[in-house]
Amino acid sequence: MPYLQKISFDFAAWLTSRVKLRSYADDVLTRIDALRARFDVEQYGQVEYQGVAHPLFAVRSRNWNDALPVVLVTGGVHGYETSGVHGALMFLEQSAETYAGRVNLLVAPCVSPWAYEHIQRWNADAIDPNRSFVANSPAQESAALMRLVAPLQGRVLLHIDLHETTDSDETEFRPALAARDGKPFVPGTIPDGFYLCGDEKNPQLAFQAAVNAAVAKVTHIAPSDDKGEIIGSKVVAPGVILYDYKALGLCAGMTDARFTTTTEVYPDSPRATPAQCNAAQVAAVCAAIDYALTH
After folding, report:
1. Contact 242, 199 (CB under 8 A)
2. Alpha helix locations (H) across the chain?
3. Of 71, 225, 260, 278, which residue is most buried, by most CB within 10 angstroms?
4. Smallest Cα–Cα separation from 62: which of 108, 101, 111?
């Protein structure tokens, strides 16, 4: 029987104890500005918390061609998952132009800037944006991204959403979630390595395998635990689990793209550096696009 720990949650105390630890403007916006010479950059909204506004930016292919399929790349839906943000930016800086004339790229590198700055999973309303891609979304970040993507519905070939699984999931964020929802906290385990979360309604396991094969050249793939699971979900192929994207309100379920996946990098591994984590995200994006274009 797992140990059950009941924790109370005081929202006001939680919010006032959140501390800004890094700068969205310095880390993200300066790099987006540097891309303006090569891509189209647009502000698609802004989020405001405690009187501070953060503009939301997306980067598009310069010569957008409506005859081409659309590839959607999202990062920083969970702002604390650093390589999701920096991997998306690194892809734009180093690899995106190789796909010019073959796909239309739409990249939202940092969907949740307040959470990026405060190294949090939730936004400042204690809402998880990656459970909020639903009609009448309660999360400003999710609602803004859905408005951006809405005109492209039916045209998105691939959506890859860049995430991390961290030790703080177990030490901070899952206990906070249990407390917020008035439920007991049941301790779990964090897998050591990269894995993918596919859509159980559209698994595309050959696609997931191709992405993992590319990432394995950069960092290690997470093994299953002694139950054949990763974070409590059955492993259906090496380094692959499945969630019901739409039922859970996940970002990767916001389109009806033929190919979808959510990456999960493990930055706390003693076998992976921050540079490897960023490179793993880029490898995953490139492999996903390459597979989608040939299948």
Report:
1. yes
2. 11-16, 24, 30-33, 82-94, 113-118, 140-149, 167-168, 174-180, 205-215, 245-248, 274-294
3. 260
4. 101
Q: How far is CA 189 from CA 126, 165, 261, in A?
A: 23, 11, 22
Rounded (5°) CA angle 99-102-108: 55
Which one, of 239, 256, 39, 57, lies nearest residue 159 by Cα?
256
Q: Tokens 């959607």, residue?
A: 72
Selecting from 3.40.630.10, 3.40.50.300, 1.10.760.10, 3.50.50.60, what CATH number does the domain 13-171+188-294 have? 3.40.630.10
- Chain-centre distance of CA 176, in angstroms? 20
Query: How much is the pTM?
Result: 0.97
Report the half-sphere exposure of 277 (CA within 13 A, side-chain side): 24
Q: In whole angstroms, give the CA distance from residue 90 to residue 82.
A: 12
Whole-number Å distance between alpha carbons of 273 and 64: 35
